[in-house]
Amino acid sequence: MTLTSLPRILTLCALALSPLSTAAQAQVSNPVLSAEILPGWTTERGTRMAALHLVLAPGWHTYWRNPGEAGIAPRFDWGASQNVASVRAIWPRPQIFDQNGYRSYGYEDELLLPIEVTPQDGAHPMALLGALAIGVCADTCVPADVAVQGVLRGAGEHDRRITAALDNRAEPGAQGGLTRAICQLHPGDRDAELTLRTSVPSIGRTEAVIVEVPGYRVTDAQTRREGGDLVTQARLRAPRRGDPMIFDRASIVFTVLSEEQMLVSQGCTGG
Q: What is the C-alpha separation between 245 and 180, in angstroms, rounded?
């Protein structure tokens, strides 16, 4: 895959906000991408389980919250929404893409992203307005600015599409049989090598471990299975050359991903 900074930006403009019913949400489209808000339902906690639905042209894909080494990280801004206290994205399991020696994580043709919306005042409707910056890729990758909006009112109703996406979310590592995580850091001149050994039963084909360390860029990650362990080696690079490598083992987040399952855990011990 060739990453380019093309001057062409795909800009999608949403319909003007109007008192839409929950069955008629604002939708935008162009030849590459269409976007809409699925209204979903009110949960027992009083939040709203809705979804952002992106449909891409055949052969195009977009990225998971961590795009990997060859991708564009998505950015969502819901700050212009009305009567909305918070919006939490619940990412479904992505696909693994290996192209030209780079590995990335995302969704081909379609992304249905559940979002849990908390109202400021549950007695009134919520106007959900999102400004999204995502990458869409085929042979090349281009940034896409997406504006999407909808009104969430009433109790709504359950949507099997949203439920299916929720069923594909990450499970806690312990629930999937993960029993321990041991990590070692070997500092170098400009970066450091991280080795993470995770004790977890096989969760399917094409297993990968995605490592996230706050404040550092993670590159060159390679995972291999050694019996009941997954061993991942990766390089950590600080934002600025010469910065000290200060590694907080409790802050590391790692996701064990396969074509069938996704587990997430945080923290590792020295060893």
A: 24
Q: Which two tokens stand for residue 63?
A: 């990225």
Res. 205 pLDDT band, cuts 50 70 90: confident
Q: What are phi and psi of 166, to 5 degrees?
A: -65, -35
Q: What is the pLDDT of residue 230?
A: 97
Q: How do strand 217-226 and strand 253-257 relate by DSSP bridges?
A: unpaired
Q: Does residue 101 contact residue 95 with C-beta atoms inside 8 Å?
A: no
Contact 210, 105 (CB under 8 A): yes
Residue 149 has pLDDT above 90, yes or no: yes
CB under 8 Å to 189, separation ≥6 — which residues? Answer: none
Q: Is the dihedral of CA 217, 78, 161, 123 positive or negative?
A: positive
pLDDT tens digits along 61-119: 999 999 998 788 999 999 999 999 999 999 999 999 887 778 899 999 999 999 999 99
Residues in CB range of 216: below 8 A, 6 or more apart: 236, 237, 238, 239
Average model confidence (pLDDT) across the chain:
87
Q: Please, how many CA atoms are within 13 Å of residue 22, restricted to the half-sphere of its CB?
A: 18
Rg of the chain over all Cα atoms, to the nearest angstrom: 20
Written as one letter, the residue type at 19 is P
